[in-house]
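Side project, low priority. Logging it here so it doesn't get lost.
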Amino acid sequence: MHIATLPGKYGIGQLGEEAYAFADFLSRAGQSYWQVLPLVPTGYGDSPYQSFCSVAGNEYFISLDKLAAQGLLTQAELKKCVTPLSSRINYEELYYTRYKVLRKAFSRFDKSDAEFTEYIKKGEYADYALFRAIKDSKGGKPWYEWEDSLKFRYEDAIKAFADAHETDILFWQWAQFEFSRQWSAFRDYVHGKGIKIIGDVPIYIAYDSSECWTQPSLVKLDSSRRPVAVAGCPPDAFCETGQLWGNPVYDWERMKENGWSWWKARMKKVLSLCDVVRIDHFRGFEKYYEIPYGDETAVNGKWMPGPGTEFFRELERSVGKMEVIAEDLGALDDAARAMFAEVGYPGMKVLQFAFGSDEDNEYLPHNYKDSNCVSYTGTHDNDTLLGFINKLGEDREAFRSSLCDELKKLDLPLPGETDEEMCDSIMEMCYSSIAECAIIPMQDWLKIGEEGRINMPSVLSATNWSYRIPADYATDELAGRMKALSVKYDRCGT
């Protein structure tokens, strides 16, 4: 469950009372891991996988109550930020209102604070702050639409802007300082509950990001700073024109010449925030699919060689042993499987993908070769478990039959006739598997239908990334049910 998905009165989940309460709930429920989505600011489509910066913290997550406790906001100002309880995040409203509130808090912050002055002296998030300040001054336009003097970062133009907008730039650095301070305290609290945090690293960076602007050599851009090629997936049985993500693809050869320095810094930062990281689209490190920029579909793309196993060996020589979950979903060839085996990171087994083919399906728990994997009922890109079952229609009985066959193989109790009872059986199957770790989205525990889906891949929708769980989720009955399964299958964290 993502931080944004937490309930609360300020329009989006924050690192305040609601986050601490959820950690308390997980402790009561005997859980040992909490998986979140990328903690970064959201960009195009409100997606955390299209961020303005791959290592910055999402300013919306800064707790307004904690700012008030520092004397930076008044109770009257907090009251104006309260939104009606809703199951959806209104990102547009947040964009036009939340930064104004944060700027008000910043105006009262003591800029001579010793910790803050040291932070600024080190240049923490200086490039990102400059990027956001220019972006604000241009009405939110992407950097590649700025005038050439700023787009190409001419020294005189950058200095002139920085001199004229010093306070604006300092605000964005302060926001990252405050996020870091709040996240650090929160992470320590979660650790104190015996719970580790699983973070998330998108493989690609967004075109409209501070990294593409400040380090264009990271990706394949031409001399005018337009992408040469963008990322996606080829056509398949699910999408006849493929998936067109739009992110510029990395210039892996140039990255290698630079000793992978950017990736090393990125992984060090993410691992300083989280205990384990899921790396998205892991097969892209063996081969990645690139599509000519400007194409409207992914049909004309081609596979290109990625950095391979050597890349991860080099990362670990610099960063140290990394606790990684490799997102190995989708069609994999022998070369990709060989890379997964060589790096040795646990992959993902998603139970929504386990049924509907045959008994050799690799996602069926009886086919797990060993415990070096993580079992999921679904991910942020899947429908909720109840939503998935609700939509089976005429395939429902065939699905139930396959489910019962697998439950018999695993010597697990068979479900009743309702969709909710099938959900319970699949969640128990997840926990009972030999997988090293088992992750169940909070919406599945709560038996939320399709309205709880977090994302519909490749579809630009106002409902993507916006769902929030009900405020009354933390019942003793649910905590007891979660803990009972954790104890039964020796997964209890506390």
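Brief comment: The longest strand covers residues 196-201.
Revisit when time allows.
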